[in-house]
Specification:
298 residues, alpha+beta, TIM Barrel, Immunoglobulin-like, 2 domains, five-stranded mixed β-sheet, 5 helices, globular, binds zinc ion
Length: 298
């Protein structure tokens, strides 16, 4: 938990985690203890096809969200669509089977009161045509720790997300670990959710997530919004670089602020023709923060 300079409380969590219940190497109890010891306040255990029950805060203070990962498609047939769907916060087991379609899974998650995330679209080689064929998911992973080296490839999905945003699709963006091996991917990418002075519980977390009151980050603690005709990113932690992303392909020097001295604020002028803006900010030690996508109206 982090208290910002306004006195608001932010809670740290990992939304995508595997245990020995599927293909992770640590038991659920060991994973919960590990994340709690790293300072996390909530976690979702999202074992493949094994629904994990949620529990309110345990004596250690860790809240467990109900969750599961439903993976569809063959890894050798990306062209037909590899869709890994994370289910969160359902009120019951949504009873999804491997014979269901990805869209049926999304519909069942919604019917069970949950929210869905499209996991690692870059790793899955999802094109915008493929992921825009699905409806009803709340968010997308912009960064997935275990998809990076030394385990895997394509951890960053920002480019493929921007291709969808060009077409008017603005999902919530999350970062998470997808922890399996616990050899360095754990604790790398997470979200921080603002609950202000409200207690940490499932319903407050759900409300804050759905209202976009969170950031995705590996370290930077920042805010992002529109002020007048500028997009403004402010950080409580020092940054070495801030980059703004829109539907436009940029000329040099117009979208990136990089300095040798620490940056705490960066501004970007919104020009006519921009339909959305988002930002990424990097700490001096290389951790990245990922803003939400803000649609722009002119
Ligand atoms: Zn997956
Ligand atoms: Zn996974």
């Amino acid at each position: 938990m982090y208290i910002d300079k306004n006195g608001d409380r932010w809670y740290r969590g990992n939304l995508h985690t595997h245990t020995t219940v599927s293909d992770g190497v640590l038991s659920p109890e060991a994973v919960k203890k590990l994340y709690r010891n790293m300072g996390y306040d909530f976690i979702a255990l999202t074992d493949h096809w094994k629904y994990g029950e949620g529990t309110e805060c345990d004596p250690s203070g860790l809240l467990v969200l109900s969750g599961c990962e439903y993976n569809f498609g063959s890894i050798f047939d990306a062209e037909s669509g590899i869709f890994h769907i994370i289910s969160l916060l359902t009120e019951r087991n949504p009873e999804i089977y491997e014979s269901d379609s990805p869209q049926a899974a999304l519909d069942k998650i919604a019917a069970a009161g949950g929210i869905s995330i499209l996991a690692h679209p870059a790793w899955s080689l999802n094109t915008p045509d493929l992921y825009l064929s699905l409806r009803g998911y709340w968010g997308t992973e912009i960064y997935n720790s275990v998809s990076g080296t030394p385990f895997n490839c394509r951890p960053y999905s920002g480019n493929v997300i921007d291709q969808g945003a060009v077409r008017g699709f603005y999902p919530a963006l999350v970062a998470d670990d997808d922890a399996h091996f616990y050899r360095g991917e754990e604790g790398m990418s997470y979200i921080m959710v603002r609950l202000g002075d409200k207690p940490l519980c499932t319903e407050n977390l759900r409300t804050a997530l759905l209202s976009g009151d969170f950031i995705a980050t590996q370290g930077p603690f920042f805010s992002f919004g529109i002020e007048g005709d500028e997009a403004v990113l402010r950080s409580e932690t020092p940054l070495s670089c801030v980059t703004f992303f829109t539907n436009a392909a940029f000329a040099w020097d117009t979208c990136t602020v990089a300095k040798s001295e620490p940056i705490f604020e960066a501004r970007f002028k919104i020009e006519k023709g921009y339909t959305f803006v988002r930002a990424e900010c990097t700490s001096p030690s290389g951790e990245v923060g990922y803003s939400r996508i803000i649609p722009l109206k002119h």
